[in-house]
Specification:
heterodimer; A: 245 residues; 8 helices; B: 103 residues
Chain lengths: 245, 103
């Protein structure tokens, strides 16, 4: 179970790096910031997934604390463009969205500084720095899920009058699902950290939840970023058959 | 920026139809809601679709004479005003999500 979860995380990280490459190329072509921000997020998180999990999967010693800390900082930095992407896409002029971005950034910074002062990446739920950092990367996933789900509902209406392509309306749903699966991965994370507190090995449930949510995240992002023809055709056909979207 | 576009659209609807300010804003809000659009994240192409496909019916229901012409006049005025204020380039989530999938 443990090896499977590590392998799934590494595979997810590799997929995020591929998605990042595609998004960054897209942003070079369009000169637009949303794809740049999302591409940066996947680049930072992809490297963390691969390099943090690889030693465990290979059965090696875990990374030296300083290197692990360096990867943690890269991950934390990478959440900033994720937050900016959500704000820029869904709430570009909202003051409360700016407040969420600021609050999450402060949580991430405080958590990473706390880990740095303690001399290494903390993975224990009793450590306030860990909990604060956990909030900093979990809230954006909840936010993305909520905004995408709400926009999907409105986009279905727009699709009925030809104002939104059915595949775009569906893409909001896929992003909502991605946000939800990532919240599940964050739940697995805190389950793992709670186990560390009790001096127990991570439970099978945490590993299973992590593996399933990461696989599911990759599946929905694949459909969102690289929609196969059969899928696009199926969405178009389904929309045509169901006038209410 | 998009809420500015809503204000411009309501103003132009008011001047093109003879509806009072409150009625023009209310009518616009109803048409946007029917289209699944958020008044705070509008783009000019979205407004054009609403004014072409939904607004004539809404105006007719409110007793506006020649609703189609009034609706066309309003959207033309909105597009002119938006281009003067650089609002025509505002992006909507739909445009962003369309690019993300390469569609």
């Amino acid at each position: 179970m443990e090896e499977s979860a590590y392998l799934t995380s590494i595979a997810a990280g590799a997929f995020y790096l591929v998605a990042s490459y595609r998004l960054l190329r897209l942003s070079r072509r369009t000169g637009e910031r949303p794809e740049l921000l999302l591409g940066l997020y996947f680049a930072f998180s992809g490297q963390w997934y691969v390099f943090y999990n690889a030693p465990y999967f290979l059965g090696l010693e875990s990374l030296p604390p300083l290197i692990e800390l360096g990867f943690e900082w890269l991950y934390v930095i990478g959440v900033a463009p994720y937050l900016l992407f959500i704000r820029m896409t869904f709430r570009p002029t909202s003051a409360w969205a700016t407040a969420i971005v600021t609050a999450c950034a402060i949580c991430l910074l405080v958590g990473a500084v706390g880990s740095s002062l303690a001399g290494g990446f903390s993975n224990a739920a009793s450590d306030p720095a860990y909990l604060i950092e956990w909030l900093g990367y979990t809230v954006p996933c909840v936010w993305l899920c909520g905004e995408s789900a709400l926009t999907h509902l409105a986009a279905r209406k727009r699709a009925q009058i030809g104002l939104c392509e059915p595949i775009v309306a569906n893409r909001y749903l896929l992003f909502a699902a991605f946000g939800l699966f990532q919240v599940g991965a964050c739940a697995a994370d805190i389950g793992w950290a709670s186990g560390n507190d009790a001096g127990m090995a991570a439970s099978s449930i945490s590993f299973a939840l992590l593996g399933v949510t990461e696989l599911a995240s990759v599946a929905v992002l694949w459909l969102a970023f690289f929609p196969p023809r059969f899928y696009s055709a199926w969405i178009a056909r389904r929309t045509a058959l169901q006038p209410d979207g | 920026m998009a809420d500015v576009l809503f204000d411009i659209a309501a103003d132009k609807l008011e001047s093109s139809t003879g509806l009072d300010r409150l009625a023009a804003r209310g009518t616009l809000r109803i048409a946007l809601k029917e289209a699944g659009l958020d008044p705070q994240s509008l783009s000019v192409p979205q407004l054009r679709a609403v004014f072409e496909k939904l607004m004539p019916r809404e105006l007719e229901a409110r007793g506006v004479a020649d609703a189609v012409s009034a609706s066309n006049a309003a959207i033309d005025a909105i597009e002119r005003a938006a281009s003067e204020t650089d609002l025509a380039a505002a992006t909507s989530p739909d445009e962003i999500f369309k690019r993300l999938g390469g569609s």
